[in-house]
Structure formats: structure tokens, C-alpha cells
Amino acid sequence: MKKLSSFCRVDETQYALSTNKVNMLYYDLPKHFQGEYHSYETPRLCTILQGTKQVHINHSEQFLYRKEQCVLLPPHSTVFMSMSEYTQALVYEFSDSIVEEVSARVCDNLEFDAPSDLDYRHFRVERLQDRIHSLHARVQDILHSGDQNVDFLLDLTCQEMVYELLKRQGCHEILSHHRNHPINQAIRIMKASQGRAISVSELAEETSMSLSNFSQKFKMVTNQTPKEYLTKLRLQQSKLYLNELSVTDTALELGYENISHFIRLFKKEFGITPKQFKLMQN
């Protein structure tokens, strides 16, 4: 499993161990390392294999967490952390599908009242004990097993881990209710558009919010404006199109009538031109 030495999103995307239901991220961080960390669109369960972390989560008070604890982050969390010693960490990034599948099977038997006004920046610190600790150890065994069916085994184990988290009230709220947040609804609409043009006003209407209120809340949750987020999605989609289409056809497919503008945006985002990207793929 590839070790990550920073919180670079490009590296996280490229080097995560990904199954159908979960991404596993392994961080290997030196003594005195510090940096800003983000959970992006999905909940993340953060654990420490070795060392300790001083963290501020979503502007909370600073606290220390250790190997025997875990932190469940809601989507779009911002964490500033520092390490006074060499630290290894394993992070579970749960997909919507694994949370939905487990919830559909068991939530009728779990007696929790949905919060009337869940703070979207809420997080949960838990002790790694009992069943969750055993499952966490099982995941580490699977990762080191060399088994040909690692993905299958990880998905099974992580389904049970999500089940155990859903049984805890605070964790249940984070896992179950983030999908109903209007900003996450907007993000799903953006992604479903596969990079094609969609207006911010359409997104505001879909989430039953005024344009100004939607834009303000979107920026608060994601640290990006809706337009910036859409642009990044379109540019990511353009890399897929460039495998089959010309630069011009890719730009037009994504709604960029000004080809030069598309090329400038692509180079600003990825550091190379679309043409250079195509040549690298051949």
C-alpha cells in the first residue's frame, strides 16, 4: 500500500487503495510535520497506527488524539494538525454506497431520532475499543495478507465497521444525514452532469435556496465557490474525454466555446496543456 507523506489531494486520489465501497489512505508523517487536511465529499474515519496528533477540526479547540482513539469527520471538514513525533495513520474514506447499503439493512432496528438542526461541521471522537478495534485490526491483517481478494475482504469488513459506527448516536448522525444536506445534494447533481454545463442558478433552484444563500453556504462548506467547484469537475472530466477526443472537441463537449480559455484553465489546474496531456497518454 502506497505511503503518503503529505495531504496533497492529487496524491490521495492517485495512491489510495480503492475498492467499490471504500478508499484506504496510509499516511507516513515525519516528526514535527504540520499541515491542513480535508475530508472532501465523504465521511472519513481517521485512525493512528503509531504516534500522536494535535488537531483543530472545523475551528474547534485544539486537542490531542492517540492510537487508542479515532475521529469520524463529516464531509468537507478542515483539520489543521501537527505531530510532535513520527506518526503513521490509516484513514477510511467511506463511499455513499456503503453507508446507504448498510443503513438500508439495519437502520429500521436502530432507535435514533434525526437531529432537527445537525451542525454540518460536527465531528466525533471515539475510543477504538470492542468491535471497532477488532475490525480495525482485521483491516490491517487483510492489507498485509497478500490475499488475491483483498478488495472483497476489505469491503466486507468495512461494511461491518460502518454498522458498528451507525450504532453510536453521534457517528450515526454524521454517516446517515450528510447525504440530505443541500450542498451535498448539489454536489451529486454536479457530478451527475459529467462535466457538462450546468448553471449555479439551476443548482440553487434544485436545492430550494436563493442564489445568494446557496453560493454563501456552498463556499462555507467546501471552501470553494460553486463556479470554482464546477470548473474543477469539468477539467477532471476533460482528462477522460481527451483519451478519445481532440482538444477542440473536448472543449466543446464540456461547453467551452472559447478553446483558448479551456486550454488556459487546464494548464492552470494541471500544469500542462491538454495537448501535452494527450501526448503523455500515448
TrEMBL record:
Could you tell me the keywords of this UniProt record?
DNA-binding, Transcription, Transcription regulation
**Superkingdom of source:** Bacteria
Sorted alphabetically, which InterPro entries does this protein's record hold?
Answer: Homeodomain-like_sf, HTH_AraC, HTH_AraC-typ_CS, Tscrpt_reg_AraC-type_HTH, Tscrpt_reg_HTH_AraC_N
**Annotated HTH araC/xylS-type domain residues:** 184-280
Q: Which SMART domains match?
A: HTH_ARAC
One molecular function GO term is: sequence-specific DNA binding
The record's section on PROSITE patterns has: HTH_ARAC_FAMILY_1, HTH_ARAC_FAMILY_2
Protein name (Swiss-Prot/TrEMBL): Transcriptional regulator, AraC family
Task: Identify the species of origin.
Answer: Vibrio xiamenensis
